[in-house]
Prior knowledge:
four-stranded antiparallel sheet; 32% helix
Amino acid sequence: MPLFVTEHTHPAERCPARNPEMARGLLALIENADKAGIRIQGDAVTNQQHHLYVIAEAPNEEAIRKYFAPFGQMGTLTVTPASRCEQVVARGAC
């Protein structure tokens, strides 16, 4: 399944973590992604910078964009196709 790096950013004043209901809903997206056919490999939020990174496998880019679209309502959402390190080394280029 294709690999993607998804990045979400938002301004500090619109941080969804400050709204308990919104925060629970967005966390549920991360926790329940497998039900949508998306396998989360890792997620991280950079401290005090309002950036969320998700590494995930999905059937295609459209599927991951649709699934994570709620994050885009609070800021930006960028989805970038990616490869595992061993794949890059095997093909000899990024």
